[in-house]
Design brief:
Strand 15, helix 9 and strand 16 form a beta-alpha-beta unit. It contains eleven helices and 18 strands. It has two domains: 196 residues, Alpha-Beta Complex (Quinone Oxidoreductase, Chain A, domain 1), CATH 3.90.180.10; 139 residues, 3-Layer(aba) Sandwich (Rossmann fold), CATH 3.40.50. The mean pLDDT is 95. It is an alpha/beta fold. The longest helix has 13 residues. The protein is globular, with a radius of gyration of 20 Å. The strands form four sheets. Strands 3, 5, 6, 9, 10, 17 and 18 form a seven-stranded mixed beta sheet that branches. InterPro entries: ADH-like_C, ADH-like_N, ADH_Zn_CS, ER, GroES-like_sf, NAD(P)-bd_dom_sf.
């Protein structure tokens, strides 16, 4: 067999299952058989009105050299089925979660360990180099993080979104005992709640979310309070829940101007507002007076760096992180558009994480 089936992005609202060449393993790389691949908000944005992170047609990504059509799937787990030369520490049969962010290793950010800020930043599964929505894919060995033998592969596919939340908490000024507000109860907001709980947060954690179902998820995953900002005055409600003080740290996983405005007012003096939301083409504004007279700080966190995947995997294995409830739907690769993206658009209140089960590839009729 020299070809395989893969879900590829051709253009906005043009996702196809194509028959493509099976990738060849290079020295220092491994080949995997993807098991499960998650669909995230960034995938949805690409589908609805992309490309955004995906390079535009005719303008290949600087590191992968690829432009559409590109294989999708950057949140994925799989099993190694072939090892390239010069690879050590990995073997055929290992369960893997792939850390998909690309980096050149030579720019100033990379030399400081900030691979998430690399000039060549991109994603396997968005920017090229294959992806998790294919029968086979390759990745540099250093991107492959071993999963415990007893960890289900569907749980392994949650490592990537959980690492985003873990990194956000780890890089923020949060300290045990601080009070926290999380704006948005989607996958990333919930990953922040789970990370806070795993990292020992026992003080007030508040989630602001309009969806009743997602507020329920937030409480299940460890939030002390979940409020509807369309009903409650958010800054006042937060102050009521924090003895009039406001929160020490606010994480914005929603990316809405009204959230920035109300969230900043909910932050205590010398507290910090942390943006982890993808804003797309929208550009938020900040009320500098609110920041100035409260000496409040604004910072951002993006994806993850070395050690974040490993920390998440360890926390999952020891039971500190229990993300199973995030999985709300499992679909086949031929259902990505209709049962995946459509569900995240039309039924988003009831969906958190939709997984694509690549074992169902036999059900797919591919475009030749």
């Amino acid at each position: 067999m020299s070809t395989m089936k893969a879900v590829r992005f051709h253009a906005a609202k043009d996702i196809r299952v194509d028959q493509v060449e099976i990738p060849v393993v290079k020295p220092g790389w491994v080949r995997l058989k993807p098991a499960f691949s998650g669909i995230w908000g960034s995938d949805l944005h690409e589908y609805l009105d992309g490309p955004h992170i995906i390079p535009p047609q005719g303008k290949p990504h600087g590191m992968t050299g690829e432009s559409p059509p590109v294989i999708l799937g950057h949140e994925f787990s799989g099993v190694i089925d072939q090892i390239g030369d010069e690879v050590v520490g990995l073997k055929v049969g290992d369960k893997i979660a792939v850390q998909p962010t690309t980096y050149d290793g030579s720019c100033r950010a990379c030399r400081r360990g900030l691979t998430n800020c690399c000039d060549a930043f991109g994603f396997i599964g968005l920017s090229g180099w294959g992806g998790g929505m294919s029968e086979f894919t390759t990745a540099p060995a250093e991107y492959c993080k071993k999963l415990p033998d007893d960890m289900p592969l569907e749980i392994g596919a949650l490592v990537e979104p959980l690492a985003v939340g873990w990194h956000a908490v780890a890089t923020s000024p949060y300290n045990p005992g601080d009070s926290v507000l999380v704006l948005g109860g989607g996958p990333i907001g919930l990953s922040v709640v789970l990370a806070l709980r795993a990292q020992g947060c026992k003080n007030v954690t508040i989630v602001s979310e309009v969806s009743q179902r997602r507020r329920g998820f937030a409480k299940t995953f460890g939030a002390h309070h979940a409020i509807d900002p369309t009903i409650d005055d958010l800054p006042q409600k937060v102050k009521d829940l924090t003895v009039g003080e406001g929160v020490d740290v606010c994480f914005d996983a929603a990316g809405l101007q009204i959230g920035v405005d109300s969230g900043m007012k909910a932050v205590t003096a010398r507290g910090t507002f942390v943006n982890i939301a993808l804003w797309g083409d929208r550009r938020p504004s900040l009320d500098m007076i609110d920041m100035l007279f409260g000496e409040r700080k604004y910072m951002a966190g993006v994806t993850y760096i070395a050690g974040d995947f490993e920390a998440v995997i360890d926390a999952m294995h020891t039971g500190k992180l229990k993300p199973e409830g995030m999985i709300t739907k499992v679909i086949g690769p031929h259902e990505v558009a209709e049962e995946g993206f459509k569900a995240l658009t039309d039924d988003k209140d009831n969906q958190v994480k939709i997984l694509v089960d690549m074992s169902r590839v036999a059900e797919v009729k591919a475009n030749e």
